[in-house]
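Page 47, continued from p. 46.
Same chain as before, 205 aa.
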Amino acid sequence: MSGPGRPDPGRMLEGVRVLDFTQYLAGPTCTRLLVELGAEVIKVELPDGDPVRRLNPQRGGTSGIFIQQNRGKESLVLDLRRPESIEAVHRMIPHVDIVVENATPGVMARRGLGYEQLSAINPRLIMASVSGFGQWGSYAHRSCFDFIAQGMAGLMHMTGEPDGPPYFVGIGVGDVNAGVHAFAGIGYALYQRDRTGRGAHIDVS
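Result:
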């Protein structure tokens, strides 16, 4: 809590620049928290935008959940299927501290935007990858949404009537939990970078 003689904790990440390639909920939760601590977050969207923009309820043509999770971010539209867009990202990477993405594992690397490719440009870069089942293992290639994670974790089995079917929990608890863990991992990666001068790749499922 800030007050007389106390520093304002809301600007801890002032001067930190983030490229945000996330959409839906898990990744945007992480980058929203970075904004709230003062980081400059540039949200990169494909020309048709984050699908969450079109959910209801809406105000002024934009969904409430999109506004909630993306407030305070700057916006950049790039068609990542085009080589010139990838080149534009590569030119930005030397000036970026953190990249956050929540694509299915392998998608960013195929675009030339994987950790190995970007860290070769900027060895101090920290990248957080948020996915359903992590970057490695037999399930890594599978796409995932919150309700799938809830079902596989058994959380739905504990929700609803004792003799009834499993119920979806009324909040995206898996997505939000993953976003918060990615946020925490980034904080420690920044601390490690101060000591070693090297970035890191954070893998959150």
